[in-house]
Write a structure and sequence with these properties.
Layout lengths: L9 E9 L2 E11 L17 H29 L2
Antiparallel strand pairs: 1-2
Keywords: Membrane, Transmembrane, Transmembrane helix
Length: 79
């Protein structure tokens, strides 16, 4: 089945052909609305400021955690 890219939202009828006889079924197909294809329907390209803030926070947390781990290991070797 193919739906035109310019189809408007609404209910549509579907016509089938079986053994040479067409049969129409009313209101069995509904177009709800269009979405943008590609990257999951997103409309932005690249990282958003929110994505950058989350990534920066994760990197900072990893650096702090690694520093704490390294300092603990360093102090244990002096005992």
């Amino acid at each position: 089945m193919t739906v035109n890219s310019n189809a408007t939202a609404g209910s549509y009828s579907v016509t089938t052909r079986c053994e040479g006889r067409p049969q129409t079924f009313s209101g069995v197909f509904t177009v709800i609305g269009g979405v943008r294809g590609g990257l999951g329907g997103s409309s932005s390209i690249g990282a958003t400021p929110t994505d950058m803030a989350i990534g920066g926070g994760l990197v900072a947390a990893a650096l702090v955690g690694g520093g704490v781990f390294w300092m603990r290991r360093r102090s244990e070797s002096r005992i």
